[in-house]
Automatic annotation (TrEMBL):
Protein name per its UniProtKB record: Uncharacterized protein
Superkingdom: Eukaryota
Organism: Anguilla anguilla
C-alpha cells in the first residue's frame, strides 16, 4: 500500500518536473534565436 502511494505521488510530480525542464529549454532556445 505504501509503495502504491509513493508510485502515485511520483506519477503526479514527475510530469511537472519534466514540463518545467522543457519550459526552461524552450525559453533558452527563444533567447538564443533572438
Amino acid at each position: 500500500m505504501c509503495i502504491l502511494l509513493v508510485f502515485t505521488v511520483a506519477c503526479i510530480h514527475f510530469p511537472k518536473i519534466f514540463n518545467v525542464q522543457i519550459f526552461w529549454a524552450n525559453a533558452a532556445d527563444r533567447e538564443n534565436a533572438e
